[in-house]
Amino acid sequence: MFRKLRIRFTCSTLVILVVFLSFLSSTVYFATSQLIDRSSKSLLEETAKRIIASESNLFDDYMHPKLFDEKKITDKIKGMFSVNDSKLRLGYVIYDQMLDLVYVKNNDDIPFSEFEKYVFDSYENREAMFSLDKIDDVEYRIYTRFFNNGAKTGVVQLYQDRSMEVFILEHLKHSLLFLIVVSSFILAVISWYLAGKSIKPVMESWNKQKEFIADASHELRTPLTVIQTNLDAAMCDDSGTIGENRMWLDNAYSETEVMSKLVEELLMLAKIDANQVTLRSDDMDFTNICSRTVDKFAEKFKIRGISIHKNLEEGVVISGDQLKLTQMLSILTDNAIKYTDDSGEYSISLKKEKNKAVLEISDSGVGISEEDIERIFDRFYRADKSRHREEGGTGLGLSIAKWIVESHRGTISVVSKVNEGTTFTVELPIKS
Ligand code: ADP
Fold this sequence. Notes:
Layout: H1 2-53, H2 55-63, H3 70-80, E1 90-96, E2 101-105, H4 116-125, E3 128-135, E4 138-148, E5 153-161, H5 163-236, H6 246-273, E6 282-285, H7 286-296, H8 298-304, E7 307-312, E8 317-320, H9 322-338, E9 345-353, E10 356-363, H10 370-373, H11 385-390, H12 397-407, E11 411-417, E12 421-429
Parallel strand pairs: 7-9
Antiparallel strand pairs: 1-2, 1-5, 3-4, 4-5, 6-8, 9-10, 10-12, 11-12
The structure holds adenosine-5'-diphosphate (ADP).
């Protein structure tokens, strides 16, 4: 599924980039060809104007064949051009009012006779026109201009060999195409890499989600099986009273409690994942909250014979969500009771340190081994699966506690020694 997604992502990015690149290249090509076209046309127009401006002198020369001196005329025209026309492969011819050819300046043997048709058109319509023609595989740009400067009438026709222009444009086209192909390849590699990078967090959260669903269903199946087995046992005893089957019913009942705790925690985690948990930000006396939370467990402590040591500094005020912080305190205290043998010790201390409230909850319980300590904040992680399940553990408490602490911009850490005890330290910013 993710491979398909990556391919799709790469393809769409690539298509967008290639379209953009093609658009850019076409613009460059089009702009260049327009520029060449415009400058060539204006050169032809400019040249034609100069020829026409000197028209009367030229005609005088033509009209008197004896005085016809081609060199003289050519020099006259050459002097008029600011650009050397031979470099531009430019040639021109001049026709008089009878459309007789009176002058030829034919550069590189341009086949001007092929372009006579434009001369007639221009003369007939009394206008200037540009045309493109191809003779013997050579392309020409032809500018044919009718003129009537009062004294003289005629047509001047200029030709420009477009070979160099075509060559430049073809070369540009090939270079741009090559650029598109090479960059497409490079972009494909980059897009593939970036697609992989962007999909990675989605993949991780998808896998986590899958793991979470698998773990949750597994955790829910266990109490359900226990409930079913106990109720089966009670139902088998057709004639027995409720009192006689109390043990089976008690077992089933305590499992429903485990289940409801589990469902509650699962819902909480689902809300956390969906960013649906809104935290209040009220100022509160954290000392008071710690004290009251421990008091709520007084009965449990008493039953287990665990002694309580409270060392709470007065007036530690923090800002946060009271319910959630109480939940975090309950998780840590409940764990301390669960994982401490009867007649053990529990201690809670709270003190201000610089701008932090430092809370420590310790027990003299079973402790956590080094290999487990890294993972106890992971969802569904239980160090000793069978034992801790018997204690009613779901493996979700500490991950919720960690989320609560961190969403209050605090930190939580643990120090433990097997068979000696465990200390959880929570640091929260205090209200200054
Ligand atoms: P659970 O519901 O199983 O207690 P938690 O997330 O609260 O889930 O704790 C995860 C695991 O961390 C527990 O199963 C237990 O192995 C270990 N643990 C937590 N607190 C203590 C403690 N005070 N002493 C020893 N082990 C603890």
